[in-house]
Amino acid sequence: MSSPEIASLSWGHMKVKGCSSSYKDCKVWPGGSRAWDWRETGTNHHPGVQPADLEEVLKKGAELLIIGRGMNEALQVPPSTLDFVKQKGVDVRVFQTEKAVAEYNKMAAQGAKVGGVFHSTC
């Protein structure tokens, strides 16, 4: 399965190709996507992205994980979260969200099994 293209990104709004709904924050993986609801794991800007936020994407076959920290990079990514991903044998890259989406789409177009979590506001 291929990773779906992120078709558009603006403040508070993301569209994934092949999906009828739009997202504020989203998770994508080879073959799918869904809203990233921070309330599921108690995530907040600080301390930031938790391993539990990434489990689903990793289980769905991502071999490369892209994390978008927000338009102003307000969302933190603790070293322990990066270590968790690396221990799973998955490469992880962290960017400001516009750069994260560009990297994700570039890797998806090359056929990589890429997944990601993206915060589309601050």
TrEMBL record:
InterPro entries given in the database record: AAMDC, MTH938-like_sf, NDUFAF3/AAMDC
The keyword Cytoplasm belongs to this UniProt entry's keyword annotation: yes
GO biological process, one term: positive regulation of fat cell differentiation
GO CC list: cytoplasm
Compartment(s) where it occurs, according to its Swiss-Prot or TrEMBL record: Cytoplasm
Keyword hit for Cytoplasm: yes
Keyword vocabulary terms for this entry: Cytoplasm
Family, as annotated: Belongs to the AAMDC family.
Protein name: Mth938 domain-containing protein
